[in-house]
Structure formats: C-alpha cells, structure tokens
Amino acid sequence: MRRPFYLVTGLLSVALGTIGAFLPLLPTVPFMILAAFCFARSSPALERRLLDHRHFGPHIRRWREKGAISRRGKKAALAAFAFSIVLALLFSPFPWFLVPVAAALIGGTWIWTRPEA
C-alpha cells in the first residue's frame, strides 16, 4: 500500500518540479528532492535517474549528504519570499498581510542558515 503512494507522490513531485522550471514562483529543486525521497521508497530505478540527472542530481545529493543549499538557490528562495511580501502588502488588508511576512521571515531564516555546497 505504501509503495504505490510513494510512487504517485514522486511522479506528482516531478510534474510540479517540471512546471516550476518554467514558472518563476514555483520551486523546482525542492520538488525533485521530494521525488527522490519518494522514489527511494518505491522505485530505485527512478531514484537513480534523478540522482544521475545533470541538473538536479547534484542538488539532491548535496541535500542528502549535508542538508546543503547552494547560494544561488538561497538567493532565489529569498527573492521569491520578498516578492510574496510585496504582493501581500499591496493586496492584503491588515493584519492578514502579516502572515506571509512572518512565513517569509521564518522560512527565509531557516533557508539562509543551511550549509552551502
């Protein structure tokens, strides 16, 4: 029962990561890391394909080995957080705009404190 769940979740993660490669605010690498996690529990062949991928493989391996995020990835994540804060300030009333601000501060701090490659 778990294996099909992990397989479907991994395939959905790859689909979302692929979409994220073309949409600026949808992350790609986190979805590929999630897909590798799911494939490790459902399909070793698909996991191997992700680990051998020339773009995503190094990010996945760095995350697995050291919990590391590249400086470029950190900057991209923080830029996305900043953009979401601006949107919240423009379109959300007080106090609701504080929710994305708090999420960005917490998430951004966590991301920035991860080790680098």
From TrEMBL:
Sorted keywords for this record are: Membrane, Transmembrane, Transmembrane helix
InterPro entries in alphabetical order: DUF454 (IPR007401)
What are the record's GO terms for cellular component?
A: plasma membrane
Q: Which domain of life is it from?
A: Bacteria
Q: Membrane-crossing residues?
A: 72-91
Protein name (Swiss-Prot/TrEMBL) = Inner membrane protein ybaN
Q: Which organism is it from?
A: Sphingobium ummariense RL-3
